[in-house]
Amino acid sequence: MILANAFCIVLFVDELLRSLAAPPSPPGQDPHGWRVPVDCVRANELCAAEPSCSSRYRTLRQCLAGRDRNTMLANKECQAALEVLQESPLYDCRCKRGMKKELQCLQIYWSIHLGLTEGEEFYEASPYEPVTSRLSDIFRLASIFSGMDPAANSKSNHCLDAAKACNLNDNCKRLRSGYISTCSREISASEHCSRRKCHKALRQFFDRVPSEYTYRLLFCSCKDQACAERRRQTIVPSCSYEDKEKPNCLDLRSTCRTDHLCRSRLADFHTNCQASFQTLTSCPGDNYQACLGSYAGLIGFDMTPNYIDASTTSITISPWCSCKGSGNLEEECEKFLRDFTENPCLRNAIQAFGNGTDVNLSPKNPPSPITLPPKTEKSPALPDDINDSNTMYDTSIITTCTSVQEHGLKLNKSKEQSLCYSETQLTTDIMPDQKTFVDQKAGGSRHWAGRILPIVPILLLLLVL
């Protein structure tokens, strides 16, 4: 019996030491063999460190230069290079919006994926990492920053309140004042502004200012026309959006796709805002936050969208284009335009943000209520034109939909419904279509071994006794 116990303990210790001495997984792989997605800049570094990958990547870039996909694949060397790179970290790499080397990352991504597409695709996959945050996260931050209960201010001008909230944050105030000044500066009698500089200033604002400020400016809820017009004027549309004539939407899309950043933001919008009839909210993964973030990411590019009017009864978004002169491609053009003008996902997301509602996808573990800071004595209310560098260009304080939790869910199925959901309504996955493999046990073996090792001397002592 003692010998049997001793033999078991020896085997156990041997297996334990083998696991500790095992070499680490190769870069870009987890212990189970799945490729762990990395950003494309890092993937490029990993490829450059491997001679076979590096040489094939150079070959592919030469193959893509000035050739369409069919011509490229007719070359066996080009085809072989593409097949090898599909097994490298470059194939699964993604980028982060606003990252330090975003343009370089996107250039690397498209250098691979443009060779994989069958010509001009209507929808392209987003090169960005999937969004996991929710609107409820922004509501919490907005409530904490404002220091007040949003529901208590339901009768206020939400767009004006949003501007005042922005002016209380140094970064938001500085960048907002910067783009308003740039977009309003007249260049000459024939050119009232520099659209290029205006777009750059707008991109800086929406990329560098937290969403709890920018969303309130863009998506504030309005009950009167003055508020709705203020919301429409947020991006200074006379410079950033409108033009003398409307180009054809397909021509505008082609122009956008010649620029890696614009192409990526448009693909991201289609990925996160494309209407889905398999979800309750009409949004992919029922994620309003992903759609609104993708919409904001388009501002400052050729495909900049905006509200087409100051209506308080309906929300209609469109880029500055039409389908006039589409010829045989009119149906395709109309379909592209409807992704903005008649998009239930985008419309519902904007309404949900204005109402302070979100879809709860964790009914078993509801989030704990937020404890707001104690109310302090309010300072005198600011006039409309004080601490607001643009009295026309502003937007919203968030209202909550507490009546839904108190009285139960009552859905209005009209086109302009406000979407409030109970905690037991949805159980769908956040991003069901994503193929990102995460090793939840990564590093777990060492942690387990660290807890077992102290027990080994005790087992040996018991054996001797």
Characterize the structure shown:
Residues 19-34, 144-152 and 363-450 have low confidence and may be disordered. It is built from 22 helices and two strands. The chain is an all-alpha fold and 465 residues long. It has helices at 2-21, 40-48, 51-64, 69-73, 76-85, 89-92, 102-113, 135-146, 158-167, 170-184, 195-208, 211-218, 225-232, 237-240, 249-257, 260-273, 288-298, 330-341, 344-355, 402-407, 444-452, 456-464, and strands at residues 305-307, 317-319. The chain is globular and about 65 Å long.
Secondary structure elements and their pairing?
Layout: H1 2-21, H2 40-48, H3 51-64, H4 69-73, H5 76-85, H6 89-92, H7 102-113, H8 135-146, H9 158-167, H10 170-184, H11 195-208, H12 211-218, H13 225-232, H14 237-240, H15 249-257, H16 260-273, H17 288-298, E1 305-307, E2 317-319, H18 330-341, H19 344-355, H20 402-407, H21 444-452, H22 456-464
Antiparallel strand pairs: 1-2
Helix pairs in contact: 1-22, 3-5, 9-12, 10-11, 16-17, 17-19
Strand order of the largest sheet: 1-2
**What characteristic shape results from the CA principal axes?**
globular
Tell me the fraction of residues in β-strands, as a range: under 5%
Q: Tally the helices.
A: 22
| Radius of gyration of CA atoms, rounded to a whole number | 27 Å
